[in-house]
Description:
2 domains; 5-stranded antiparallel β-sheet; alpha+beta; single chain; elongated; 5 strands
Amino acid sequence: MQPTHSYSSLINTSLRQFKVDASTLPIAVVIEHVFYSWRVGMNPSKWDRWPDVEPVRLVLVRRQYRYEQPFQGLLLDDVQKSRHKWFGLVVFVDERAEGRPVVQRWFPGEVLTPIAVDPNIIDKDSI
C-alpha cells in the first residue's frame, strides 16, 4: 500500500500553517518542527487520567516507640465506635518476628496514617 502523502508535502503543509518559509531553515529544524507538532497532538489531555484512588487503603502503622520504623499495611476494614473514635483492620508483615509472618490486627485510628497513591505518576526507576 502506497502512502497518500510524501514527507515533503507534509512538511510544507505544516510549515505553511505557521507561515514559515522552509527555504530559509536548515532541514533538521524543519523535520524537528514537523515531528514536534505530531508528538504534541498525540499527548493525552489532562482529562484523560486515572481518577484519584478512593478510599485510601495503604497505611503506615506507628509502633510503640518513637524511633521505630512504622509498619506498612493494607487497611481491610474500618469501624467507627463513637463520634471521635474509630478502628482499622490492618494486614501487615511483622519484620520483628521470626519468619516474618503476615499479621491481621485491629488498630486505633490514632496510630494509622493513610498513604495517598496517584496512579498517574509511576516512578519506573523504583519498580
